[in-house]
Specification:
Chain B: GO terms for molecular function: acetyl-CoA C-acyltransferase activity. The complex is a heterodimer of chains A (about 375) and B (about 375). Chain A is α/β, with parallel strands linked by helices. Chain A is built from ten helices and 15 strands. In chain A, the strands form three sheets. Chain A has a seven-stranded parallel beta sheet, with helices on both faces. Chain A has a five-stranded mixed barrel with strand order 4-5-6-8-7. With about 375 residues, chain B is an alpha/beta fold. Chain B has two domains: about 130 residues, Thiolase/Chalcone synthase (Peroxisomal Thiolase, Chain A, domain 1); about 230 residues, Peroxisomal Thiolase, Chain A, domain 1. In chain B, the strands form two sheets. Chain B has a nine-stranded mixed beta sheet, with helices on both faces. Chain B has a two-stranded antiparallel ribbon with strand order 5-6. The two termini of chain B are about 30 Å apart. The chains are: A alpha/beta (about 375), B alpha/beta (about 375).
C-alpha cells in the first residue's frame, strides 16, 4: 500500500517558526522589534526597516477577508483528492489588523469584505496553517476538519490504566464514547473501569500479541509508569517502555495520534528530582523522533507537559496541582484542535515562560 | 523622473521554437535551438554573437554561464534574467544598454523552458520562498489561486463580471486561428468560456494559460549593424521596468506600469492613442485588464467596457495580442515573457502574414512576472517602432 498523500511539508527555516507556534496552539506572527512591522510570510529580515531582529509575538486573531477563491483543481495529490469534494476548497487573503496579508483556509460561513477570527493550527502533515472563521461560532466546516483530520476518534489504547493518570484518561475516553478503549495493564485493574462499556482490558506485558489484539489504532495515550526514583527505573518506565511499545505497535499506527503525558520537567528540569527530569527529557527527545515517523502517514504526536498533578497521596502538599480529569480533558481537546505541545496548567506555563526568557536561571533557585 | 532614450538600438530576427505541450528534451535544447534559429535567420556566424541574455525556469542547475559552455559561445557580455514574464522586456533593456555602451556588439536574447509531465508541479512547489511557505501548503500549487484572489477582488471592487474576461479570451482565441505557432486554435464562444469548468473560482479553465515547452528569441544590435547586414528590424523607442511596485496595496489592482506610463510614452514620443498594436502579458485576463488600465488605454476599472467596445483583431480598431497571446499559443515558461516582443517584431517588419496589422508603425509590449504568494512583482513595458 502506498503512503497516503499529505499536504506539502517543504518550508523555509523562518516559516517553521510558525509551525512551532501552531504546535502550541498560539496565534503568533513575526514582528520587528525595532519598528513593530508584522511580517508575513515569515521572513529573515524586516521588510520595512531591514532589522534582522524579528520575534514571534502573540497577536489578536482578528482580520478582514479581502478576497477569496474556491479551489477545484490542485497540483498536489492531497488537495486533488479533496478539492471539489464535496465542495471546492475555500482559500482567501485576510488582512490581519496589523496590516499583514495572510493566506488562509476560509470557513464556508465567512463573507468577503467581512471580519474573520483567525487561528493557527497544524495540518495533516504537522505543519502550520492559518484558518479564517466567522467571528461568531458556526457549524463545523468539513473542509477545515479535513485539514487537521487527526482527531484520535476510534480505537484507543491507554498504555497503563492501572495508574491514576492512565485511569483518568481511560474514563475520559470512555465518556466520549470513542471506539473501544484498550486498557493496558500488567497488573490488576480497577474492576469498575475494566467492566465499563467499551473497555477492553489488554495485558501489555505480552507485546508480541498486542498488535493482533487491537488492530488499527486511532490513538495511543502513553502515560508515565509508576516511577520509583532511580535513574535506571525512571528511564525504563518513562522512556524505554513507550519506545518498545511504539515499535511493537508500528504496524497499526498509520495515521494515528500518539499522546504522551510527560511533565514540565521534560522542558525545565527540577533540581530536586533529577532522575525523573532526565527520564522525561529523554522521553521528550524520543517523542520528537516519533512525531517525524508518524507524520509520514499523516499521524501526529502530542506532548503534554503538566506541572504538579493532584495524585492520590499528595493532598497535603502545598501549591497548585492539576486535577486528573482536567488534565485528560485538556489533552483530548488539544488533540482535536491540532495542538502538538500542551502546557495544561498555570505552573507549567509559568515555568515554560521563565525558561524561555531566563534559560538556565530556572532551576538555580531563581 | 525622465529616462534616457535609447539611441539607434534595434531588434531583429524574431525566432520561435515550436511549442510542445510536453517534452522529453531539456531547457538547453530549446534555448540552443532558438540560437540556431537566430543564426539561420541572420546569417551570422556563432562567433559574431558576443552577448547572451537568457531566461529560463528549467535550466537549473545551470545559469547563463553553463549555457555558454554548452552552446560553445564566447561572450563579452552575459546576463541571466530570472524574472519570468517580465524577462523579455528586462532582457531587451539590458541588452540595449550593453549595445549602446559598446560592451557587446550583437546580443542574443533568448528565453526557453521545457515542460515534463509533473515538472510544473516541481517548479511551482519551489517557485519562491513566499510561495513555498504561504501558497503551496494551502493546495494552491501554481498561480491559479493567487490570480483567482486578484480576480475576485477586482470583480467586487470594480463590478466586473465573468463575461468581461470572457470577451478577451474569445477575441484572443480568434486571433490565434491563423497563427501556425499557437497550440490552441479552435475558436471558442462566450458560452464556451462561461461553461468551462471552475479551476479556482472565479478563475475558469479558459482563463488559464497552458504550460508547455518552447523558446523565443531575438537579436539586439545597433541600427547600423542591422542595416549593413540587411536584416529587417524595428527600433526600440522606450522601455521601463519596475519591481515590487505598490507593495502596500492590500490586494493587487495595479502594477508598476501605472507609475511609469508617462515617462514611457514621453521617452517614446507617443501616447496611448499613437499605439497601433498592443501585446499584453496575458497569463490571466485580469492581468491584461490591469495593463489596459495602467498603460492608459482606459480608466481604472474600465477595462471590461473597453474590451467590449473594441475589435481586438489585427484588422480591428484596437489590435491586441495579435497572435493569440499566451492564452492560445501556450506558456513556454519564461518564453511567455518574450512572446509579445517576437510577435510585435514580426508585425513591424512585415512578417506577420495573415495576422498582419495593416500599416502598423508603433507597437506596445508589456511584461509581468514572478507571482509571490499574493501578487506579481515585476512589471515592464516597451515601445517599438517600425524602421
Amino acid at each position: 500500500m502506498s503512503a497516503p498523500a499529505l499536504p506539502p511539508r517543504l518550508r523555509s527555516a523562518p516559516a517553521l517558526g510558525l509551525t512551532a507556534r501552531a504546535a502550541e496552539g498560539r496565534f503568533a506572527l513575526q514582528e520587528c522589534t525595532e519598528c513593530g512591522a508584522v511580517q508575513y510570510p515569515p521572513q529573515e529580515i524586516c521588510a520595512a526597516c531591514l532589522s534582522g531582529d524579528l520575534r514571534w509575538r502573540d497577536v489578536a486573531p482578528k482580520g478582514h477577508l479581502l478576497a477569496g477563491t474556491r479551489l477545484s483543481h490542485s497540483l498536489e495529490p492531497f488537495f486533488q483528492a479533496r478539492a471539489g469534494r464535496p465542495a471546492p476548497w475555500r482559500l482567501g487573503l485576510v488582512r490581519h489588523e496589523s496590516g499583514a496579508v495572510l493566506t488562509c483556509f476560509v470557513h464556508a460561513a465567512c463573507v468577503e469584505d467581512g471580519p474573520v477570527r483567525l487561528s493557527l493550527t497544524t495540518d495533516r502533515a504537522g505543519m502550520a496553517c492559518l484558518l479564517a472563521q466567522p467571528e461568531q461560532a458556526a457549524e463545523e466546516d468539513p473542509m477545515l476538519t479535513q485539514i487537521a483530520a487527526v482527531t484520535g476518534r476510534g480505537p484507543a489504547l491507554v498504555t497503563d490504566a492501572t495508574t491514576p493518570v492512565g485511569a483518568a484518561f481511560a474514563r475520559a475516553l470512555l465518556a466520549r464514547g470513542a471506539g473501544p478503549v484498550w486498557l493496558g495493564h500488567g497488573g490488576p485493574l480497577d474492576p469498575a473501569l475494566a467492566g465499563a462499556e467499551g473497555a477492553r482490558p489488554l495485558d501489555i506485558s505480552a507485546l508480541a500479541d498486542v498488535v493482533e489484539m487491537t488492530g488499527p489504532l486511532a490513538l495511543v495515550v502513553s502515560v508515565p509508569g509508576p516511577g520509583t526514583g532511580t535513574l535506571e527505573e525512571e528511564m525504563a518506565a518513562t522512556c524505554f517502555a513507550p519506545a518498545r511499545l511504539a515499535a511493537a505497535l508500528a504496524p497499526v499506527l498509520a495515521g494515528a495520534a500518539w499522546l504522551a503525558v510527560l511533565g514540565i520537567e521534560a522542558r525545565v528540569p527540577d533540581p530536586a528530582r533529577p532522575a525523573p527530569s532526565a527520564a522525561l527529557a529523554a522521553a521528550e527527545a524520543w517523542l520528537t523522533g516519533l512525531r517525524e515517523t508518524l507524520s509520514a502517514s499523516g499521524g501526529r504526536a502530542i506532548g503534554v507537559y503538566p506541572g504538579p498533578l493532584a495524585l492520590p497521596g499528595t493532598e497535603e502538599v502545598a501549591g497548585p496541582r492539576l486535577a486528573l480529569p482536567a488534565l485528560a480533558r485538556a489533552a483530548l481537546d488539544a488533540l482535536e484542535s491540532g495542538v502538538q505541545e500542551l502546557f495544561p496548567d498555570p505552573v507549567s506555563r509559568h515555568l515554560l515562560a521563565r525558561a524561555a526568557t531566563e534559560g538556565k536561571a530556572v532551576g538555580r533557585g531563581a | 523622473m525622465s529616462r534616457a532614450a535609447f539611441r539607434d538600438v534595434v531588434l531583429a530576427c524574431p525566432v520561435s521554437v515550436p511549442y510542445a505541450r510536453f517534452s522529453a528534451r531539456g531547457a538547453q535544447y530549446f534555448i540552443g535551438t532558438a540560437l540556431r534559429g537566430l543564426l539561420a535567420e541572420s546569417g551570422l556566424e556563432k562567433r559574431e554573437v558576443d552577448g547572451l541574455c537568457v531566461s529560463s525556469f528549467s535550466l537549473y542547475p545551470d545559469s547563463g554561464i553553463g549555457l555558454l559552455r554548452a552552446l560553445g559561445l564566447q561572450a563579452t557580455w552575459l546576463d541571466t534574467i530570472p524574472l519570468g514574464g517580465a524577462s523579455g522586456i528586462v532582457a531587451l533593456r539590458r541588452a540595449a544598454r550593453a549595445v549602446e555602451s559598446g560592451d557587446a556588439g550583437i546580443v542574443a536574447c533568448i528565453a526557453g523552458d521545457t515542460c515534463a509531465p509533473g515538472g510544473f508541479r516541481e517548479a511551482t512547489a519551489r517557485f519562491s520562498q513566499a510561495s513555498q511557505d504561504a501558497v503551496y501548503p494551502v493546495g494552491a500549487g501554481g498561480p491559479n489561486a493567487s490570480f483567482a484572489m486578484i480576480t475576485d477582488h477586482y470583480m467586487r471592487r470594480f463590478g466586473a463580471v465573468a463575461e468581461d474576461f470572457g470577451r478577451l479570451c474569445v477575441a484572443q482565441r480568434a486571433n490565434a486561428g491563423p497563427n501556425p505557432r499557437a497550440l490552441l486554435r479552435k475558436p471558442i464562444t462566450l458560452e464556451d468560456y462561461l461553461a468551462s469548468r471552475p479551476i479556482s473560482a472565479p478563475v475558469r479553465l479558459l482563463d488559464c494559460v497552458m504550460p508547455c515547452a518552447g523558446a523565443e528569441g531575438f537579436l539586439v544590435m545597433r541600427r547600423g549593424e542591422a542595416e549593413a547586414r540587411g536584416l529587417p528590424h524595428c527600433h526600440l523607442l522606450a522601455a521601463t521596468e519596475r519591481h515590487n511596485a505598490y507593495a502596500d496595496d492590500p490586494v493587487q489592482e495595479r502594477g508598476g506600469w501605472a507609475a511609469d506610463r508617462e515617462t514611457l510614452f514621453a521617452a517614446a514620443g507617443t501616447t496611448p492613442a499613437g499605439v497601433d498594436l498592443f501585446q499584453s502579458y496575458d497569463d490571466y485576463p485580469v492581468i491584461s485588464f490591469l495593463q489596459l488600465e495602467d498603460l492608459g488605454f482606459c480608466a481604472k476599472g474600465e477595462a471590461g467596457a473597453f474590451v467590449a467596445a473594441h475589435d481586438l483583431s489585427p484588422t480591428g480598431d484596437f489590435p491586441m495580442n495579435t497572435g493569440g497571446g499566451q492564452h492560445s499559443t501556450g506558456q513556454a515558461g519564461a518564453a511567455g515573457g518574450f512572446l509579445g516582443l517576437t510577435e510585435t517584431l514580426r508585425q513591424l517588419t512585415g512578417r506577420a502574414e495573415e495576422r498582419a496589422v495593416p500599416g502598423a508603425r508603433i507597437g506596445l509590449v508589456s511584461g509581468f512576472g514572478m507571482i509571490a504568494y499574493d501578487r506579481g512583482l515585476s512589471c515592464g513595458a516597451a515601445v517599438l517602432a517600425a524602421a
